[in-house]
Specification:
single chain; about 325 residues; alpha/beta; Rossmann fold; three-stranded mixed sheet; 16 strands
């Protein structure tokens, strides 16, 4: 990386955008964050240049991106409100700004692009036949980015399984399995016993992106990678890890119960988030695993935090357990 390269992060206040902004900052990048509200003062935001602007405003995005080598497109409408109407125009603004600044676009990807004909093992080039509205939009997003790469832009997409982490934003861990801010009494698991599921620890995903960006000049103009993350082979391993962590830290083991899908069905007409969660139920009914061979071949490894360590950090960040005293990290890398 050239000294003091600049990156613009759209969606830098939460989720993968926030985690990637912090890791890029710590890796020596000059990080700009675009957000609509006036900047707040807190320790996490030290050394991030906050620029007031709206991802729906093309001129404001272009102005914020001037001089940037990379634009991270991690912005989403809050609570899935008006998602279909806003997502593609925001991406078009990012593409226009990247072309003007000659910047690389980074998109955190998902598996929503894929339908049952691509399961159970997903490679980067598996057929994309989505079965949901959100999946169809994801396919269109990547198609527009591919066209942009054909026209001279550079694109990096990293797809991962269900996010979890201390500051992961909206995700199944914090909206389904447990209740943030409360002791873990019951783990509501959405999948069925015997059905494997893919999880991704947000700091690991961000670390992979940082390492790929350091090699971006050697990547294809349209580069896309899959994270292996944490594979729960039978739908019990992830919940069991939560039980272990809570028992060790709080002295009791929470019970594991079935997720109340019936409640989402009843509430979906009135709640956009519940409606979107219900639409994704098919991803919990069949084993879906991601092939990370391309990522490992490129980096030599995949950033990988041990499962119990990742879950402990997540539960502490969500205020479900008390924060532990700082200690040396046991993080490791694996293929």
């Amino acid at each position: 990386m050239a000294q003091e390269e600049s990156v613009l992060v759209l969606g830098a206040t939460v989720g993968i955008g926030g985690e990637l902004a912090r890791q890029l900052r710590d890796a020596g990048w000059h990080v700009r964050g675009l957000r609509r509200g006036a900047p707040k003062s807190n320790a996490d935001e030290d050394r991030i240049e906050w620029i007031q602007g709206d991802a729906m405003n093309r001129e404001e995005v272009a102005r914020a991106a001037r001089g940037c080598a990379v634009i991270v497109h991690a912005v989403n409408p809050p609570g899935y409100r008006h998602w279909a109407e806003l997502v593609l125009p925001m991406l078009d603004n990012t593409i226009a700004a990247a072309k003007s600044a000659r910047a690389t676009i980074v998109l955190p990807g998902t598996i929503y692009n894929f339908g049952p004909d691509a399961f159970p093992l997903l490679s980067e080039d598996s057929l994309q036949h989505p079965v949901t509205r959100k999946g169809a939009i994801r396919v269109e997003m990547e198609a527009r980015l591919k066209r942009a790469s054909d026209e001279g832009a550079r694109v990096l997409i990293v797809r991962a399984g269900d996010f979890f982490g201390p500051k992961a934003g909206n995700n199944w861990f914090s909206q389904g399995l447990i209740k943030p801010g409360k002791p873990v009494g019951t783990i509501s698991y959405p999948g069925a016993r015997g059905v494997g599921h893919q999880w991704s620890y947000l700091p690991d995903v961000a670390r992979a992106m940082v390492e790929l960006l350091a090699r971006r000049d050697a990547l294809e103009p349209f580069a896309h990678f899959h994270m292996g993350g944490h594979w729960d082979e039978d739908g019990t391993r992830f919940a069991a890890a939560i039980q272990r962590v809570v028992e060790r830290r709080a002295g009791y083991a929470p019970r594991v119960g079935a997720f109340p899908w019936w409640l989402l069905t009843l509430s979906s007409p009135f709640n956009a988030t519940f409606r979107e969660m219900r639409e994704m139920r098919y991803l919990w009914r069949t084993p879906i695993r991601m092939d990370n061979a391309r990522l490992v071949a490129t980096l030599g490894h995949e950033p990988h935090t041990p499962l119990d360590e990742a879950i402990e950090a997540t539960l502490a960040g969500l205020r479900c357990i008390d924060r532990a005293e700082p200690q040396a990290s046991a993080s490791s890398v694996t293929s």
